[in-house]
Specification:
Layout lengths: L4 H10 L7 H5 L6 E7 L3 H17 L2 E9 L2 H13 L10 E3 L3 H6 L5 E4 L6 H10 L3 E4 L7 H16 L4 E3 L7 H11 L6 E10 L13 H7 L5 H4 L2 H4 L2 H11 L5 E7 L14 E8 L3 E9 L6 E8 L2 E6 L2 E6 L3 E2 L7 H15 L6 H20 L3 E2 H5 L30
Parallel strand pairs: 1-2, 1-4, 2-3, 4-5, 5-6, 7-10
Antiparallel strand pairs: 7-11, 8-9, 8-15, 9-10, 11-12, 12-13, 13-14
Length: 420
């Protein structure tokens, strides 16, 4: 399995020293200044903050973290402590915001860039606010958990383009040289017409936060957000969106239909919420083309994180750090590449500083929709067209929420769970 973003941020959160010696970050001050607000200060948000700081060495600017926002106070404190431990200035107390409205306060500051790294269910709401306030955005994937959220995100994307805002998504393969080089070769015809693909994210279990009787239902679910689809979209949306984004990139369009299976065989305990632990899907594309998709989170199973595409004249296989074409135009990636988690911030900063066109918002929204339609097909047992899925009226994430009671969603049963 590749060393993925999740492994990196876990290490970074555990030990800020791993992010770079304090003297190294202290030397970053030079060039024009870009101010950053971080919304979502867990491991991912803190990791993205330090990725942005590291990126400034290449883009030639100074990054100033001017605001921190999170639902929970201990997370903004940890992020601030990490800045200090790495030789940087702490964010002043009047620029550290907590609670459900913290994102509004962060977007109201003088930040040039907003990092959005809360649980995905909040993403459309936060992106809408950042866009309205004229902020450039680094937005983690996925960008919604339901079709109404995707539609909202696409509307905000259009507003952002009209304002010439720059948006980079956390689909880091779009910024990884081996992927860019390999897919560039496919696009110029090195494997012929692409007719089929196979994409995988198979792995073991992830972290889990046990419920605490002293907390409300909402707080317990937010702290254990991976296992509640209103917050994560299920793991096919939260994680497998990476491969489905690559699928759309290679195929050159979104799928027209999906059918699939999935279930909950291993993670059946209530502490795992109601999400599935495996999915198997077939995405159909125009021209009698298709891609098979597989993702699972089950301990003791074979790990595989890879994308494979078959063309009339060859085959392409890709994974983080490597890519290879076999067939008529055989090729293997052998060049060096920069860490893509840093590269995506370099690209965003350069786009802002040089006023380059860069807005990945609609692109990542459609990839997110692929994952959502896959989940809906597996949950219901129905074949779903793209038009049916993107026009779904099912709302998982309310526009506003507060701490209190919230019933656990039932586990979906194919054939009984209805498409809405």
């Amino acid at each position: 399995m590749d060393l993925n973003r999740r492994a990196f941020v876990a290490a970074a959160a555990a030990s800020p020293i791993l992010l770079g010696a304090s003297s190294a970050f202290a030397r970053l001050s030079r060039g024009p200044v870009l101010k950053i607000a971080v919304i979502g200060c867990g491991g991912r948000g803190t990791g993205a903050m330090f990725n942005a700081l590291s990126a400034s060495k290449e883009s030639g600017c100074t990054i100033e973290v001017v605001a921190l926002a999170d639902l929970f106070e201990e997370r903004t404190k940890r992020a601030n402590d990490a800045l200090v431990e790495n030789g940087l200035k702490a964010v002043p107390a009047d620029r550290v915001f907590n609670g459900f409205d913290a994102y509004r306060k962060a977007c109201a500051t003088d930040a040039d860039i907003v990092i959005l790294a809360t649980p995905p269910g909040f993403r459309p709401i936060h992106f809408k606010e950042a866009t309205a306030k004229g902020k450039h955005v680094f937005c983690e994937k996925p960008v919604a958990v339901d079709a109404p959220g995707v539609r909202s995100f696409i509307e905000s994307a259009a507003e952002g383009r009209a304002k010439k805002l720059k948006v980079v998504a956390g689909t880091q393969r779009r910024h990884e040289k081996c992927y860019i080089d390999a897919i560039g070769r496919v696009q110029k015809g090195d494997i012929g017409r692409v007719v089929a693909g196979r994409v995988y994210w198979n792995m073991g279990s992830l972290w889990n936060v046990e419920p605490d009787a002293k907390r409300s239902d909402v707080e317990n679910q937010v702290r254990n957000w991976l296992y509640h689809s209103w917050l994560s979209g299920d793991h096919i949306v939260e994680q497998h969106v990476h491969q489905l984004d690559v699928m759309c990139w290679v195929m050159g369009e979104h799928p027209t239909l999906v059918r699939g299976v999935g279930g909950r065989q291993v993670r059946t305990d209530a502490k795992f919420g109601h999400i599935f632990d495996h999915f198997g899907l077939e995405f159909q594309f125009p021209g009698d083309r298709f891609v098979l998709s597989m993702c699972r989170q089950q301990d003791g199973t074979e790990g595989k994180v890879e994308e494979v595409f078959h063309g009339a004249e060859g085959m392409l296989s890709m994974r983080s750090g490597g890519a290879e074409i076999t067939g008529k135009n055989a090729w293997k990636f052998s060049g060096g590449q920069r860490d893509p988690y840093t590269q995506e911030h370099i690209d965003l900063q350069n786009a802002i500083l040089k006023d380059l066109a860069l807005n990945e918002a609609e692109q990542v929204a459609k990839s997110t929709m692929c994952a959502i339609m896959g989940r809906m097909a597996a949950y219901t047992g129905r074949d779903l067209t793209w038009d049916e899925a993107i026009n779904s009226k099912e709302v998982l994430m309310p526009e506003s929420i507060e701490f209190g009671s919230r019933l656990e969603a039932p586990v979906a049963i194919p054939g009984k769970t209805k498409f809405v």
